[in-house]
Amino acid sequence: MKFSAVIFSLLLASTGAFAPSSIQNHVKVAPGLPTVSQFSSPLMVPVTKSASALQMAAAAPAEEQSFGQKAFKVYSRTASIATTLFPVWTVIFTAWALKSPASFDWFTTDYFTGALAALMLSMGITLTPADFARVGQRPNAVLMQFSLCYAMMPVLALALGKAFALDPALIAGMVLVGSINGGQASNLCTYIARGNVALSVLMTTATTLGAIFMTPLLCKGLLGAVVPVDAAGIAFSTIQVVLAPIALGMTLNSYAPKFVNAILPFAPVVGVVSTCLLVASAVAQVVEPILNAGLSLQLPVLLLHLVGGLIGYMLPRLTGFGEVACRTMAIETSMKSSAFGFLLAKLHFGEYAARVPSAVSVVWMALTGSILAVVWRNIPVGAPAKFDRSLKEKYPPFDAKKFFAKLTGKKSE
After folding, report:
1. Does residue 264 sit within a domain?
2. Number of independent structural domains in the chain
3. Alpha-carbon distance 123 to 111, whole Å?
4. Each residue of 112-127: pLDDT tens digit?
């Protein structure tokens, strides 16, 4: 009973962490182009028809603001800084876990699963069915990134594992890291890098839902002869930890918007703490193998995220996508949900060492994504309207009637 209360509180408090808020408005673009829905900054409180507490506090003159309103403004600024510096906290908690792994013994598998589900819920609570409708209208970028996530990254992981002559169990762990979905922290890094946050959320959603069938399929196909893999167990865990929280989040967003708006301002800090605990817990459980592996494991895991991100940028660039979309796809491809990979390895892989690459990946994934975000933030990019126009010209909306007419050789009306 006590555990259930803790997990329920964590689910509510973590909502909204590392994911942008609800759609605010529609921005007008050049004549002849459709309006483009844009998400708010993940570091800001969402704008809704009913003014939030933060908006009310900001609107009131400074001399008329109550102590609570002033305190809330200070909290909001502090929360923004704390959320932006999440890679720093990741490094601190990692060092803590390596130095004193016993400090995180209390964070058991049940708590680990609950915290991970809370982060999935944080993404689902910002989504509506309309988001999926937009993917269907212009799925090119999402399909490109989906291929990078579930085709290029698993192959790259397998190639790096063999190139560095890793043990079979470590190769299995590498491939698992390459075969899981994109992480929620990618949404925040995309915002920092001046990428397309709305597109980032849609890509993360697509790969997260795709993990239900792609992760067990890839693990069974690539690793079946290396170590025993419980494909059915992986599929069940993916549904339990990924699909259910997203569905719950979308339901709350649709039927309890006032409740969602009330808890979002307080969510980011708790979300940062949850993520740091996930990182520290994963590292603390495999401290000895991480320290013993040395560069022979650290280097291939680092290269998996770094090279994967670079390919995730160059391939879309070569196929005609704009700078904003390329940055977004690079970060989405590089930043995997390593904590989820660690959970799957712990629950369903027969070899203990198979979970080590996921633990190492948790750190390198966050650092690589942060570096890419900071570098790109200091490189100017064109206005989003120009990107959307370029994307429309090169990849027009999908028209099923024209597609099948072209496929059959018939002229469409």
Report:
1. yes
2. 1
3. 19
4. 777 777 777 776 776 7
Flag whether the pTM goes above 0.85: no
Q: What DSSP character marks residue 37?
A: E
How many beta carbons lie within 10 A of that of residue 282, not counting itself?
30
The average pLDDT across 185-193 equals 78
Supply the pLDDT for residue 15: 35
Q: Identify which has the larger pLDDT, 225 or 300.
A: 300
Say if 175 falls within a structural domain: yes
Domain range for 133 is 107-395
% residues pLDDT > 70 (the chain): 71
Distances (CA, A) of 85 to 35, 81, 185, 309, 378: 33, 6, 12, 21, 17
Q: Tokens in use for 384?
A: 């989003």
Which pair of tokens denotes residue 128? Answer: 């509506």
Average pLDDT, the chain: 74
**Residue 383: predicted pLDDT:** 57
Q: What is the C-alpha to C-alpha distance for residues 254 and 49, in angstroms, rounded to an integer? A: 14
57 in a structural domain? no
Neighbours of 9 (CB within 10 A): 12
Residue pointed to by tokens 């506090």: 57
**Using CA atoms, how far apart are residues 97 and 112, in angstroms rounded to an integer?**
15
Q: Residue 117 and residue 137: Cα distance in Å, rounded?
A: 29
Tokens of 410: 């018939």
Query: What's the pLDDT score for residue 174?
Result: 93
Instruction: Look up the CATH number of the domain holding residue 352.
Output: 1.20.1530.20
| Rounded Cα gap, residues 133 and 116, in angstroms | 27
| 17 part of a folded domain | no
What's the gap between Cα 410 and its chain centre? Answer: 42
Three-class SS of residue 115?
helix
CA distance 278 to 94: 10
CA-derived radius of gyration, the chain: 21
Secondary structure letter of residue 360 according to DSSP: H
Res 147: pLDDT = 94
- Number of helices (H), then strands (E), belonging to the chain: the values are 22, 2
Bridge partners of 27, per DSSP, are 36
At 80, list the tokens. Answer: 């923004």
Would you state the pLDDT for residue 248? 85
Q: Could you write out the DSSP letters of every residue in 11-73?
A: HHHHTTTTS--SEEEEE--STTS--EEEEPPTTSPPP-SSPPHHHHHHHS-GGG--HHHHHHH
Between CA 378 and CA 192 the distance in angstroms is 10
